[in-house]
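Data availability (excerpt). The following record was deposited with the supplementary files.
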Amino acid sequence: MFPVQCKNLLGLFLFIFFFVSYTQASDGENDKLQLSGFATLGATFSDSDHHGYRKDVSSDKGVFSGDIDFKQQSLLGLQANWSISPNLDAVYQGVLRDLVEPSLDRYTTLAFLRYEVNAHWNIRVGRTAPDLFLLTEYRDVDFSYIWATAPNEVYGIIPYRSIDGVDVTYSERGLGGIFKTKLFTGSSEAEISGDSIIQEVKIEDIMGISFSFDHFNWIVQVKHSQVNIANEPLSNTYLAENISQVPDFLWPNSQSFAQSLLLKSKKVSYFSISGQYQWHNWLASAEVSQIKSKSDVIPKITSGYAALSYQLNAHQFYSIYAFTDSKNYVFNEPNVNEVALNELIQGTTMLMNFYSANQQTVSLGWRWDITNDIASSLQWNHTQVDETGSVLWLNKATQHNSEERINTFLLTLSMVF
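Predicted structure:
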């Protein structure tokens, strides 16, 4: 386990950060302080009565038919950079957005010290963004990418916005571009919401590596990471305790099955490959990822998207195809009295399919760069949600396993300042 706890590390960083701020202000060196920000005002509409749209699985609120929602896409971000010395700087970023558990700790997305050893090596200590995605470094800065929102099929399944730990990056120029290798480790925590249940899931012993090659007009990235689940979700504990109490004549081997539902100390891995290519007025990007675990509760989830856009003066028109696929669980334990244990079996099926994600989305959108710092995006998503594959949505209890075609409209105004 990474030896420094999240909140203690954040508190230490903030103390150092504001101490440096005070010292520089006293010395009249405020020119070393750079402040910047970004914001998005977004409206979301959907036509489903049963599946509520949400940006990622940490949200406990869904957008259903008849709703006009301004919380899912809206945010305000502020960032401060201090140049402490030619080789050392400090970064703090806070993002105000709708959260299940609002707190300074949750609003803080970046808080690290960065030391540049030389032109090739740099080290960061503190809170950083987990290097999982093509858009890792600007996942919350909507102005930085064309779409109204990043595809949920890839970005919505991961609730972790940051990790507390250390990363080391090595850069080397070659073949007309820049090669980068990053190693990172640490811990994190986030909420996962579903079916009126909000659970905090902590991860530790994060070990990750990423490779990238950035050329003039294209980039390729490969990433892999592995984590251990650090706590037991309450729903898993509750169901396991109830199943373990069932006598053998009703459910043989109920004890061992109950143990298989527990997630604490289980390993989960994430792998992705992504790329982007720009030629003339066209921009193409694609990303494919896969989640695997040592537990049947978290199935293998394969996700991806391909996007294409065309720029015409201050306007960009784009399309996206995205998908996510996983195996559905069907209860087939031998010699179980399904009539007597119907409620437990339903609970087991729901838990085993909680992380199942099966859907395909086709998106069309238009971005307008109003000024150099302000842009608007209008996007239409048409999603086919398959049976027992709707983890990315909030579901009405009576329609939990239903399949449905859903139209979602997103209108955003984003800016940097």
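Summary of structural features: The chain has one domain: 6-416.
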